[in-house]
Amino acid sequence: MFKIFKKKKKVEEVVEVFDPEKLNNLSDKKTEHSGVEADNIERQQVESEHSFNSNATLPEVCESLTAFMNKNGIELDFSSARGLISAMGTTRLVFLKHPNTELIRKFIQVLSEFFKIGNYYENSSTLWKTTTDVLLAYKNGEYKKSNVLNAIMAGKKDPNNILFTTLFNVYPSSFTYFDDFMNYVKNPISSTGVYISSGKGNKGKGQFLEMPKNLWFFMVLSEEFDQPLSKSITDYAMVINLGMREVEPHYDIFGNDKLMSFNQFLRKINVAADEHFLNEDLWKKIDRFEDFMDLKTDFSIGNKAACQLEEYTAAYIACGGEEKDAVDSVLTNKLLPMANSVFDFKEDTEERNTAAFLDKTFGEDNCIYAQKELDRMKSR
Asked: Which stretch of DSSP H or E encloses residue 238?
């Protein structure tokens, strides 16, 4: 059985702060960053002022999101909408999965419009090695900002906005360029940041770039990557399988009139954590899942992951979901990816079959999405 122990983290004081606006030859022009297309930021400038709806609730945000997606030609199921909003209330690192990568690109575009922000995406490169590779490209004698750096700067400029940046074509096996960003993911509210080099060749530790507190990282795996995510990632990330399909746009449907500010969103998530709890019987079933997996391999739910289980399920219920659906969702989007990082479900035996255990423990009708995800993991 896991227990939760909350610890305070030490924050190092950093004196030299990097100001990307003052870097010589730093260009705002559209660029190919590490050989990939950068989004046309000039066409989608982040708005400094939004009309936030102070009365909006989490269920209304989920309903507005599904309606807004439908308006723009994407039918998104409610469980995915609740899962995404709950994941954003749980962690700053979210992996988005769907068989059709182009549909995910469209989803990200529409989601940017929903939050009234620019579409800050980059296609990651196998050439990336350092933080600076993600943030800057040196080409033809000048530095150019990537969309990731543009998102960071937008977050610092407009701290009330909910912002995200998306990396496509991600190979987690060569994820070293994200190491510094993981410190932010682990503790986003503290004064964390990354080091960025301003020298040609990206040599040296460089200067400190403070991260805004209102930024999320969305990741979309390369279609060629067919391995489980590592434990170092699944311990901190949520993995959302998007239930969606392309449909005809319906322009007569209203836009997003339930826009929340960043601080308002955090308050709603904190209230959810105080007001919504899984019953003791369901937690005992999650404990049994941990014990079941530990018999197969060295598996445990650590303190951070345990906190995320509580935060995610509370947010999911606050978004209008039922307890049993919250458990199915957290099995699908957190516990199974964690287990798969240390155990290949293709090695399931008849005596210790995970699918049979889920049905017996949680009920056949209570883990539908989890069973589908388990099937996907076995067929990988």
From this structure: strand 238-241
